[in-house]
Design goal:
The chain has about 210 residues and is of the alpha/beta class. It has a single domain, classed as Rossmann fold (3-Layer(aba) Sandwich). About 35% of the residues lie in helices and about 15% in strands. The chain has a seven-stranded mixed sheet with strand order 1-2-7-6-3-4-5, sandwiched between helices. Helix 3 crosses helix 4, helix 4 packs across helix 6 and helix 7 crosses helix 8. One of its GO terms (molecular function) is magnesium ion binding. InterPro entries: 5-nucleotidase. This is 5NT1B nucleotidase.
Length: about 210
């Protein structure tokens, strides 16, 4: 288990104001209002949901799965889908292939995981790195893969595995990955993950 070295007792007041002082990289809570407050303060945060069935997770590698839009990236694409439709969104992505997406609320957390990974890469331990990251997105590879990967590259970030599902359910893929936590902005993806045994965390950001 983890040894808790720091904590704060706030007498019922919100702890969010202390998070930046504590240099918090990620705030997880079952309290969605506190999570929303943290997001608005520019802190990576998500509301935790437990899985509905037991799953055996790796005890030698931390596996973290992220959705793309409104989690790692901004809500730019979702806005276009809502306002102009899916076909126009595909066209927009292709026209802007070389323009990086704006960052979303958990970009900094992925960046912090990447810094830890690079310490193992420097020791020639890439294949045995105890941290593995996954992008699990409903985007189509044909219309969006290039822009997504170029965006990550422009940030100086790597993702170990990228899965473009073209709208297919994420639950079955997550069963195969068995992440210790999965971040998404859409509650139906959270619920689908829960049903199949994945611990999921909802990121309240953007238009979702």
């Amino acid at each position: 288990g983890l040894t808790i070295e720091r904590f704060c007792m706030t007498g019922g007041e919100s702890p969010i104001g202390y998070l930046t002082v504590y240099l918090v990289n990620l705030y997880l809570s079952a309290d969605s209002e506190k999570v929303q407050e943290a997001i608005e303060a520019g802190i990576a945060a998500a509301t935790m949901f437990t899985a509905n069935r037991d799953v055996v997770y790796s005890d030698t590698q931390l596996r973290v799965a992220f959705d793309g839009d409104e989690v790692l990236f901004s809500d730019e694409s979702e806005q276009i889908v809502k306002e102009q439709g899916l076909d126009r969104s595909f066209e927009h992505e292709q026209l802007n292939e070389n323009k990086p997406l704006a960052q979303g609320p958990l970009k900094g957390f992925l960046e912090d995981l990447g810094k830890l990974q690079k310490k193992f890469y420097a020791k020639n331990e890439r294949l045995n790195c105890p941290i593995r990251t996954f992008l699990v997105t409903a985007r189509s590879a044909a219309s969006s893969e290039a822009r997504v990967l170029k965006t990550l590259r422009s940030w100086g970030l790597e993702i170990d595995e990228a899965l473009f599902l073209e709208g297919a359910p994420k639950g079955p893929i997550l069963v195969k990955i068995r992440p210790h936590i999965f971040f998404d902005d859409q509650m139906f993806h959270i619920e689908g993950a829960q049903e199949l045994g994945t611990i999921a965390a909802h990121v309240p950001y953007g238009i979702a």
